Amino acid sequence: MKRFWQGTVLLAALLLTGCQQKNVSSQQRPRETAAQKAAKKRKLAAQKARIYIYKGKISTSDQKQLDKLDVAAFGDSVMKGCAPAYQQLFPKISIDAQESRQASALPGLAAGLPASKKLVLIGLGTNGYLEKSTITQTVKELKGREIYWINNNVDRDWEESNNELIAEAAKKYKNVHMIDWKNASMDHDEWFADGIHPTEDGIKAMTTLVARTILVDEGLKKF
Fold first, then answer.
1. What is the pLDDT of residues 162-175, one digit of tens each?
2. Sheet holding 94-97, edge to edge
């Protein structure tokens, strides 16, 4: 009986010590502040948004949001080939796309855009070097609009330079957004018919990438 009580007392002491240590450990561990919780939540949302942009599926509710968007698009032969797919995703879109069009035509096109068009999609740079002055003038002409510029994945010398300028503009101007087609398509040779123009699968990949990016950046898709 004596050993029983000694064992009971020892067990109780060990349990009490463990609880005390747990309480001390809990007190020593700093509590997560509201700012830290908010930052963690933003980081998680950003991760989910990135996954959606590159790999997500456009749901019925997503499509309803796209149906409302009045988009003006300027492009070259790549955009011209994608036009039917864009029109399916964006029923209100107006597309001005011509073969062999140079990016230098963009400021003039932007200057003639009706004020009602608040979202502008640009798919230029396929046919030659993009100049910084072209971007500057285009942004000036499109003041107050949201500009979505698809970067280039073309088997040409000017690809890298063009993409650097588009990325630079997206950082410099709050209303300029880069749609990263280069990153999305770089490991998918099967999406290209000739190293430049997308196949049917490539068209679907490009146009849905554009749609998902706009949904996220316009705040129409929540995470």
1. 999 999 999 999 99
2. 94-97, 71-75, 119-123, 146-150, 176-179
Q: Phi then psi for 122, rounded to 5 degrees? A: -120, 130
pLDDT digit string (tens) for 7-41? 444 444 444 555 555 554 445 667 889 888 888 99
**DSSP of the chain, one letter per residue?**
-HHHHHHHHHHHHHHHHHHHHHHHHHHHSPPPPHHHHHHHHHHHHHHHHHHHHHH----HHHHHHHHT--EEEEE-HHHHHHHHHHHHH-TT-EEEE-TT--GGGHHHHHHT--TT--EEEEE--TTSPPPHHHHHHHHHHTTTSEEEEE----SSTTHHHHHHHHHHHHHH-TTEEEE-HHHHHTT-GGGBSSSSSB-HHHHHHHHHHHHHHHHHHTT-S--
Task: For residue 27, give both structure tokens.
Answer: 């007190």
